[in-house]
Amino acid sequence: MTKKIAVIGGGSWGTAIAENLTKNNFNVYLYAKRAEQVNEMIKTGRNKDYFPDYKLSDFIIPTNDLKEAVSNKDIVFISVPTSATREVSRKVKKYISKDAIVVSTAKGIDEDSFLTNSEIISEELANTITVLSGPTHAEEVILDKPTAAVVASKDMESAKVVQKAMSNIRFRAYTNPDIVGVELGGAIKNIIALASGIVAGLGYGDNSIAALITRGLTEISRFGVELGANKATFSGLSGLGDLVVTCTSEHSRNRSFGYKIGQGLSIDEAEREVGQVVEGIKTTRSVILAKKGGKVKTEMPITEEIYEVLFEDKDPLKAVDDLMNREIKTEIS
Ligand SMILES: NC(=O)C1=CN([C@@H]2O[C@H](COP(=O)(O)OP(=O)(O)OC[C@H]3O[C@@H](n4cnc5c(N)ncnc54)[C@H](O)[C@@H]3O)[C@@H](O)[C@H]2O)C=CC1
Ligand SMILES: O=C(CO)COP(=O)(O)O
Fold first, then answer.
1. How confident is the model at residue 2 (pLDDT cuts 50, 70, 90)?
2. Contact 107 CB / ligand 2 (< 6 Å)
3. CA of 190, closest atom in ligand 1
4. 104 lines ligand 1 (CB under 6 A)
5. Coil, helix or strand for 43?
6. pTM for the predicted model, two decimal places
7. Rounded CA gap, 88 and 331, in Å?
């Protein structure tokens, strides 16, 4: 039987996910919070704020009615920023079928609770949860550029259902049971991407970016393993894959934000110019608060420098010098 699917969140990722699903012939309810946005999508067939040049599929049903979107669905994707995940999960609770699979697609760690998105959702909903992650810039997925991703879940049958729903000739999804590693890779790479943007904005070169990607991966893996992840996951699409794309792509919001900081803009100016969610800002604070509170012991020099640049007004040039000036040591510890 054809699955009934909803995507909650009409931003760039929610729209691209919905479009990808329509390529597999699903009718997809796309819920957006703002009524004007929904009316415009219905009237013009375009999500103007995010993809003005792209004509949405006729299989997309834009709606501002959460009940219509969520009721009687087999799969519900949640595609809002981490800061909105709890609120959205609470609202969805009234309408969601108990057998629906929830797909968490945001990449971040909540500042107050130090929870990942799937953990926040599981505090609010009793449904089976899967996580979709990997190197998947919405701008490319929507244009059918070949993309590979990961669907993680403790429940492999549900992961396979989501894998099948998303996979097609242009989107190849793998499964992975390591939900912790998949989510932490996706969250922490945003901090490293932000650092890569800063370094590029300062005018440093490709060597510096390669060093950040490589040492960033070490930092992410150490952090993830301390929190229970499988180290191998960080060599996969949701680890190295997403780290590379976000640290190097013109599409990355985190990298663009960092670039503007490197060029001398203030945090507010840079955030305003990017105009979409920059998850790495809050995730940096979450990690450092967790470290200060003793929840995490792992050494995270890049994240610590980024925290000082973002929240303690440290000069980015000094942050680079301080990273380079640390005690010299062996590569593999
Ligand atoms: N854009 C991308 O290429 C990808 C983004 N992601 C992740 O997906 C998440 C969402 O990112 P984007 O779509 O890029 O952000 P975005 O800024 O383009 O869109 C976020 C959308 O969420 C909506 N929203 C915010 N609060 C809401 C609420 N309380 N109720 C309902 N809707 C609400 C906003 O109106 C906006 O339309 C982030 O965690 C991001 O890291 C993951 C993979 C790819
Ligand atoms: O996670 C992403 C691509 O995989 C999107 O990253 P940005 O939020 O930095 O654009």
1. confident
2. yes
3. 41
4. no
5. helix
6. 0.98
7. 43
The answer, yes or no, to whether residue 1 has pLDDT greater than 80, is no
Tally the C-alpha atoms within 13 A of residue 249's C-alpha that lie toward its C-beta: 18
Q: How far apart are the first and last CA of the chain?
A: 52
Per-residue pLDDT tens over the stretch 188-204: 999 999 999 999 999 99
Q: Is 128 helix (H, G, I), strand (E, B) or coil?
A: strand
Q: 297 labelled as ligand-binding? A: no
Residue 280 CA to residue 284 CA, distance in Å, equals: 6
For 55, the token pair is 């004509």
User: For residue 27, what are the CA distances in angstroms to 36, 151, 255?
Assistant: 22, 21, 34
Q: Is the CB of 135 under 6 A from ligand 1?
A: no
For strand 128-133 and strand 147-153, is the pairing parallel, antiparallel, or unpaired?
antiparallel
pLDDT of residue 333: 80
Query: Rounded CA gap, 225 and 233, in Å?
Result: 10
